[in-house]
Amino acid sequence: MQLKNDLLLRTLNGETTERTPVWMMRQAGRYLPEYRVLREKYGFFERCQTPELACEITLQPVDIVGVDAAILFSDILVVPQAMGLEVQLIESKGPVLPDPIKNNNDLQRVRVPDVNETLGYVFDAIKLIKQELNGRVPLIGFAGAPWTILCYMVQGKGSKTFDEAKAFCYTQPELAHQLLQMITDTTIAYLQQQVAAGADTVQIFDSWGGLLSPADFEELSLQYIRQIVTVLKEKIPVIIFAKGAWHSLENMAATGAKGLGIDWCIQPERARQFAGKDVVLQGNFDPAKLLSPIPVIQKEVKQMLDAFGPGNHIANLGHGILPNVPVDHARAFVDAVKNHKHHS
Amino acid sequence: MQLKNDLLLRTLNGETTERTPVWMMRQAGRYLPEYRVLREKYGFFERCQTPELACEITLQPVDIVGVDAAILFSDILVVPQAMGLEVQLIESKGPVLPDPIKNNNDLQRVRVPDVNETLGYVFDAIKLIKQELNGRVPLIGFAGAPWTILCYMVQGKGSKTFDEAKAFCYTQPELAHQLLQMITDTTIAYLQQQVAAGADTVQIFDSWGGLLSPADFEELSLQYIRQIVTVLKEKIPVIIFAKGAWHSLENMAATGAKGLGIDWCIQPERARQFAGKDVVLQGNFDPAKLLSPIPVIQKEVKQMLDAFGPGNHIANLGHGILPNVPVDHARAFVDAVKNHKHHS
After folding, report:
1. What pLDDT, on a 0 to 100 scale, did the predictor assign at position B344?
2. Which of A128, A148, A321, B258 has the fewest beta carbons closer than 10 A?
3. Interface ipTM
4. Helix, strand, coil % (nearest 5) of chain A?
5. Identity of the residue in A160, A171, A266 whose CB atom sits nearest the CB atom of B160
């Protein structure tokens, strides 16, 4: 089906479009009262696993704040779940994996699953979303980067430093690479099926890539992301968002990814210099800035868009939207991007 | 008194020394069994406020792991405490300030105190430490950067994002700047008295500087750090450690600080390029890497020292040592630096 709004895809394909496309990480989430209603009624995985609910949640921000793309409502931790680990998601305290991977024995509990068997509900949701979107905007699929998934599988919960995950990699590197490869193989199959079901582009979230030194980022993260991009880029444009890994923008661009997410801690001009001229940059508004008064949001969005310049840019936050952002502030962000005129 | 080991000070003064000096952030801390004994017996602030205990703890790593500098045992949160806020430090859960600053009314509770009255125990500890050190190694004093102190005063506890602190600054910028200036004035007086009591150098810890965009880092953090450095640098060399704020290394060097701390997420070569050729760089071993087997630690320390090259470098971790690091791994780190030969 022909898309009515294909700004995002044309931008990812290198076209300079009539205006900058905009979406927000975690746009289908807790800041929306309509989402909170469903959150009261259904558990997290129930919302992920019921295609009608995942579809309704995915579409909410398209209708309510007017973003230029929908992103599948799901969670990166459905992958370790499909690989055989128990995952509990209590939203007030974050994810818990009660039996994390600590040694070779634990690794025996992990498998590369048949994704159609274990994650079929995601592909069903994607088909339903595509139908309900009816070509209004493109749909973004996603998965976690293998390193970030390993962080949770080994640490067993969220962490500021993920030092248990790092210690696992530093003391048992062979096991770590086995596990990373299993996650990679699962993720490739998972994203391929997301695309087969209708995802127009996919984003790889490496939320904890920025905890690694540049050398370790290559060793533990990027070499696996590269495998994923290599397979997927043949079919759709791929976006990598490795939060904080500014030092490897050049290497990430060299994977063949069409888009690279950046956070607000790097100036757009510097990110462009590091990433090279061809790749699309995505970001990089400080999510906490959406708590500012609306005129401040408008002023700062303008500054951001001017710094990125026209073309090769997707406007977004530099991380997920915060739950306490007023909806009209989120809408002000989106509208400010839509109304911006680049000087030529 | 003449120092027997003045490697750190000579390095900060721009001399190329016979070898690279080494110390570790949080070297006086929980990884040491000798520290844990005192931790069982005395509360956190009791340890800070009793000069004999602070002295004993400060000296432990000098004796046990052989670092080239002692750093005062204390906490950055003694400053908000001296300014009138209650601070609870429960080490298993982190700091809690039960009555944080949210508005103008709250700000009335905060004062710029007489530091001799409120923080005299720190200066007494420094005098005692200097006496007990007896010239073996220099003593580093320290304080938190005003932005980092504001984070705790407003958020009231630790946080990954400190978005309440940021929202305070974005929605009530005048109050934020009033508070930052009060913290700055207190910190200048506090560090001046540390120097008067005998501190040979001071480090300013901006643990949360890296959460800010480059523009906000200048606005909310660096302009206040600059005030502190401007006064202090007349007397002793100053080190700034703004974790994650790689984007502002050039501006930090321009304050006149003699040393800049960096974390492991930036290559030494790149940090040098950003910071310019004159300033001393301090860092940048990944603290989690100290959990690696000792031969790996030795190999990686060598790589780090080679990357920094001889001179203008103080070996350190890129953040505080983790409590679960074996003491012989910490010693292996220190020894690897001491035994390293730079090729000339």
Report:
1. 56
2. A128
3. 0.95
4. 50, 10, 35
5. A160
